[in-house]
């Protein structure tokens, strides 16, 4: 699980980062609101911890823009005890929860776990994209009803791409999420795996589109074929 922590007070940011890393989670930290917004638009996080009072840009306006852009990354706000209006506004804007400062990191972790349980409860165990059906808990893939054998890495790649059909995933994002590589090596491993996936899904290979010079996406007209 990958979490973005946005908090300008270095000491608090450090203690949150330490606590979350001890849970085995990947953590990125941003101290400025404007840079946090850029990070949220360029990378995919499972959850964001968002302080409200920030230099550059405040947390509520970040949350507002995310939701306007249909970005539903779970968000937990960090709020001051005195600011009831901010908490209410945050929840109305689509925050998943808030934690009032000062707090114990154990409380924050419990909130994160609760939010993740709720959001994964909404996720169906089957994901259908046109002729493609992924059974997530069983890690099975079917194309037009035919089961396709996949390695763990191939499945992870396909699962990642199908999270948001139509959205372009860059090679760097894919390397980070599927291979956990945090640099931009001159490797063509992503392209090699995409070719393997295309070969395996055979006649439906055009589902995976190349966006020249950027990365890959799942064709959106496939998404529109989703059953009601
Ligand atoms: Ca602050």
Give the CATH topology of the largest domain.
Rossmann fold
* Radius of gyration, whole Å: 19 Å
Please identify the structural class as seen in this structure.
alpha/beta
What ions, cofactors and ligands are bound? calcium ion
What is the CATH superfamily of the largest domain?
Response regulator
Identify the CATH architecture of the largest domain.
3-Layer(aba) Sandwich
Give me the number of helical elements.
9
**Helix share bin:** 40-55%
H/E series: EHEHEHEHEHEEEEHEHHEEH
Strand order of the largest sheet: 2-1-3-4-5
Quick recap of the structure?
This protein is an alpha/beta fold and 228 residues long. 43% of the residues lie in helices and 22% in strands.
Describe the structure.
The structure is a single chain. 43% of the residues lie in helices and 22% in strands. It is an alpha/beta fold and 228 residues long. The chain folds into two domains: 119 residues, Response regulator (Rossmann fold); 98 residues, Winged helix-like DNA-binding domain superfamily/Winged helix DNA-binding domain (Arc Repressor Mutant, subunit A, Orthogonal Bundle), CATH 1.10.10.10. It has a five-stranded parallel β-sheet with strand order 2-1-3-4-5, sandwiched between helices. A four-stranded antiparallel β-sheet has the order 6-7-8-9. Strands 10-12-11 form a three-stranded antiparallel β-sheet. A hairpin with a 3-residue loop joins strand 11 and strand 12. Helix 1 crosses helix 5 and helix 3 packs parallel to helix 4. The chain starts with a strand and ends with a helix. Bound molecules: calcium ion. The site of calcium ion (CA) has 5 residues, from loops.
